[in-house]
């Protein structure tokens, strides 16, 4: 039998494809700004070939970036196969800003790029190299579909290009990539039929194990059922409607800001909780004031954030795909005092972490993969289109606390871009001495997005001042 290769898309990753439509684009991304001088040729042009060479070498460690998705006939479940027509120049694109190349123009460009869906017939990622940015900088604008990576996985892939040593020798592509042959449609179909025919046998083995060890099996079943139920009901019902919950359109508006990471860490040590708690408290204050400016009565609103939690452990630490669960956190947007607001957030997140909902997503994913592959997709569609379980998505990704370099070019700033499922997504990345916030929002619903940015920065400053004013004994 001839050698063929394919990898079945996990249920939770396939759900990211199921949610996508003409208005909901399920790619994640990042905008990284660099000092351009080390990668600029004597004539002033950015050396794009050096950047492409680094990416080609890094991809040898991550074959997924040379793979595309094809559906299994009849069942339509996607599988990864090597793309025999892979073209690096298609995926690593080169452009420049009109001069004088201000950051505002860069944000508009990023918004347009994030408004465009990835081509489903090719590997699901793009990198735009943008030169001509003021103060002698260039940017990498990165897009990858959420079915390939989550936030932490994306950072691990990105790290393969970088080094904390500015003098580090960049990796070299030392071997020619040869695509592995993909199976025929009929082979995919027959494999899937055999796989699904084996499900009753797997369930029978589980039943036999339960008969042999009834006490342990009953406890495992009880825990799994409880975890799955908690995952389904963790949001506690419908969130309150707000003007932010209108139907999402296809166009995006992107904005970002940078705050002092050291000040944030000092504040959370003084006030308690985690850095993520502090982020949620500042976001709650900003969204509360933002909604009030729009004439919304925020008292007694059940305003909730979806907060992703990394579930990687041990050997899956560097795997691609989604290894996250979600906490649905009510935010006290009507609490004006920053310290009291943070205390309420800390209490909420501690209670959510004590629940079994985090493990419930794993239980549901495992069950879906074994028995009902489209279950996670149906659930995601239900949660994002029919049920209003959340009002905003807030993701906080930890990054390196030291400067890192791309072929000697120092990365100055990096802003993660969350997908827009509920009109706006907020994502943060801690890097070096700064905490970078990025807002990805529906273009039509957020003509005043910069106002939310200003309010967020102000709430952060209020939190820092409140922490500094606390007695030393606290």
Question: What keyword list fits this structure?
Answer:
six-stranded mixed sheet; 39% helix; 14 helices; 474 residues; 3 domains; 22% strand; Chloramphenicol Acetyltransferase; alpha+beta; single chain
- Largest sheet data: 6 strands, mixed
CATH topology of the largest domain: Chloramphenicol Acetyltransferase
Number of DSSP helical runs: 14
Q: From the helix content, strand content and strand pairing, which structural class follows? A: alpha+beta
Helix content: 25-40%
Tally of strands: 15
Average the pLDDT over all residues and give the rounded result.
83
Strand order of the largest sheet: 5-6-7-2-13-12
Look at the structure and name the CATH superfamily of the largest domain. Answer: Nonribosomal peptide synthetase, condensation domain
Low-confidence segments: none
Task: Kindly summarize this structure in a few lines.
The chain is an alpha+beta fold. The protein has 14 helices and 15 strands. The protein has three domains: 7-170, Chloramphenicol acetyltransferase-like domain (Chloramphenicol Acetyltransferase, 2-Layer Sandwich); 187-222; 231-394 and 421-426 and 436-469, Nonribosomal peptide synthetase, condensation domain (Chloramphenicol Acetyltransferase, 2-Layer Sandwich), CATH 3.30.559.
Descriptive notes:
The protein is an alpha+beta fold. It folds into three domains: 7-170, Chloramphenicol Acetyltransferase (2-Layer Sandwich), CATH 3.30.559.10; 187-222; 231-394 and 421-426 and 436-469, Nonribosomal peptide synthetase, condensation domain (Chloramphenicol Acetyltransferase, 2-Layer Sandwich), CATH 3.30.559.30. Helices cover 39% and strands 22% of the residues. It contains 14 helices and 15 strands. The strands form three sheets. It has a six-stranded mixed sheet with strand order 5-6-7-2-13-12, sandwiched between helices. The radius of gyration is 23 Å and the shape is globular.
